[in-house]
Amino acid sequence: MISLSSSVRTLVKVETYKVVPPNRGAMRTREGPTVNLNELIESGHFPKKYDPSRRIPNDVVDKLLKFIYSIPTSVNAQSTHYLVASTPESRSRIADHMGEGFDFNVPKVRDASHIIVLATRETLSNEYLDELHAKEVADGKFPTEALADQWQATVRMWIDLHRYDVKDLQHWMEKQTYLALGMSLMAAEELGINASPLEGFNSRILDAELGLRQKGFTATVLLVLGYRDEADFYARTPKSRLPMDRHFTFLK
Ligand SMILES: Cc1cc2nc3c(=O)[nH]c(=O)nc-3n(C[C@H](O)[C@H](O)[C@H](O)COP(=O)(O)O)c2cc1C
Residue 207: inside a domain, yes or no? Predict the structure, then answer.
């Protein structure tokens, strides 16, 4: 669950800064994609019905969560929190609090193996930004102190632009959450798991059940994970899209 106690927000002073050689990891290579893009293009529907008898193995879930933990956010704001429901009880807490008019989504939540609630911060305090910066410094993200200071100023400028000028800070953070959603959907595909995004729920009701607003968060979207049920007729229907020229313009 979310831990936001102020004791966690230990501010590391700039004096504790130490230089760490950049780029310690080896270059990434890969043999080739395992996601079958042709399949996704032609018949890649999000499941509408999940097999209640199938559970995702723990090591696969762990891999997905590690990937999700690594997902980037603009200025490294890390403004999304993930609540993972893997037991019938925890899935029921979500299923029972989807709100009126969203009954069509309840069986997906009950039958799938795991549900991840993607929750977004309601705001970003300067205290939180200081905590983020201190962690980046402690992790050796900056080769020089001058770069660390420059980055801190850039982040503050960018956040203040959204906070005070454009006044869309929460909306901007939710865009980061949607980027995480998209990347998680593809990662699930790569791991051989079926996944669906669900926007169809009442965030006021779900937030209350999960105690999100007291912690400064609100539920943005759900990620349903599991295995498609054979009876999902939707899997056998064709894709429907407006013609390509309604989607793409090739500039001259
Ligand atoms: C952000 C997002 C939220 C969605 N929320 C729901 C939902 O709450 N319930 C549902 O059944 N489908 C949901 N969908 C599925 C869409 O309705 C589906 O992607 C769309 O109909 C196109 O389907 P297709 O790619 O299978 O042709 C959602 C899709 C996205 C991208």
Answer: yes
Classify residue 217 as exposed, middle or buried by CB count within 10 Å of its CB (0-12, 13-18, 19+). Answer: buried
Residue 160 CA, ligand 1 centroid: distance in Å: 34
The C-alpha atoms of residue 76 and residue 109 are separated, in whole angstroms, by 30
Q: Is residue 179 part of a domain?
A: yes
User: Atom 25 (ligand 1): residue with closest C-alpha?
Assistant: 45
Phi-psi sector, 75: left (phi>0), alpha (psi -120 to 50), beta: left
**Measured distance CA(97)–CA(134) in Å, rounded:** 37
Can you give the pTM of this predicted structure? 0.88
Q: Considering only CA atoms, which residue is closest to atom 7 of ligand 1?
A: 198
CATH code of the domain covering residue 192 = 3.40.109.10
For a pLDDT cut of 70, what percent of the chain falls above it? Answer: 87
Q: Where in the sequence numbering do the catalytic residues fall?
A: 48, 108, 199
Determine, yes or no, domain membership for 6. Answer: no
The residue whose CA has the least distance to atom 4 of ligand 1 is 198
User: For the chain, how many structural domains are there in total?
Assistant: 1
- Range of the structural domain that residue 217 is part of: 44-123+170-243
The answer to whether residue 134 is domain-embedded is no
Distance in Å, CA 113 to ligand 1 centroid: 19
Question: Which residues are near ligand 1 (CB < 6 Å)?
Answer: 45-46, 48, 105, 197-200, 221, 239-240
Confidence category of residue 16, pLDDT binned at 50, 70, 90: very low
